[in-house]
Amino acid sequence: MTNAEGFLSLQQRGQTLSCRVVGRVTMRHSPALRRRVEQCLIPGPVTLHVDLHECTYMDSTFLGTLVLFKRVLVDRRRGDFALVAPSPECGRLLRQMGLGAVFSVLAEEATPDEAGERLASEPEGDGFKRTVVGAHQELAGLPGPAGKIFRDVAAHLTQAWDADQSQAVAPECGTGP
């Protein structure tokens, strides 16, 4: 398996978004996808299908972002969310994490073509950090073993984020050097 970075291709038809995931996707892909889905929610409910048949790897942040989409779209009744045709690697990861029952899975769907919008990965910044922390909080909130695994990770990331935020604010408040 290669370590080359993957990519996301997004296509919108009305209120339906189809996201094609190719190769290895990580925390660097999550902020752009999250922002794009949030933009689509502004006018009303949206359907999001994430095609994983060409995905070879998802890190915990990307996986947590998918859990967030499921919660926001399905649990809060803001739309619909499903994974499409997970690759063997993704299927194995979902089973190992105990997430098989969390997501609706569609056997197959037409994927976005090359004309779809290609979402760029992002460097670190406030939006990036916020996405990483939020994704791990989503994973920590899951019931059972999957949530238990991420509770300490989410607590640590949240504590680090809070420390970064207070350091960034302190000089502006006149309490710093």
Description:
The longest helix is centred in the C-terminal third of the chain and has 26 residues, at 144-169. Helices cover 44% and strands 23% of the residues. The chain has a domain at 7-121: 2-Layer Sandwich (Transcription Regulator spoIIAA). The model is unreliable at 169-177 (pLDDT under 50). It is α/β, with parallel strands linked by helices and 177 residues long. The N and C termini lie far apart (49 Å). A six-stranded mixed beta sheet has the order 5-4-3-2-1-6.
Indicate the CATH topology of the domain at 7-121. Answer: Transcription Regulator spoIIAA
Question: In CATH terms, what is the architecture of the domain at 7-121?
Answer: 2-Layer Sandwich
Helix content: 40-55%
Distance between the termini: 49 Å
CATH superfamily of the domain at 7-121, please? Answer: STAS domain
Which word captures the global form? globular
Unreliable spans: 169-177
Q: Kindly state the number of beta strands.
A: 6
Oligomer: single chain
What composes the largest sheet? 6 strands, mixed
Strand portion, in percent? 15-25%
Strand order of the largest sheet: 5-4-3-2-1-6
What structural class do the secondary elements suggest? alpha/beta
- Under the CATH scheme, which class of the domain at 7-121? Alpha Beta
Q: Could you tell me the radius of gyration in angstroms?
A: 17 Å
Short description, anyone?
The protein has helices at residues 30-41, 60-75, 88-96, 126-140, 144-169, and strands at residues 7-13, 16-25, 46-58, 79-84, 105-106, 117-119. The protein is α/β, with parallel strands linked by helices.
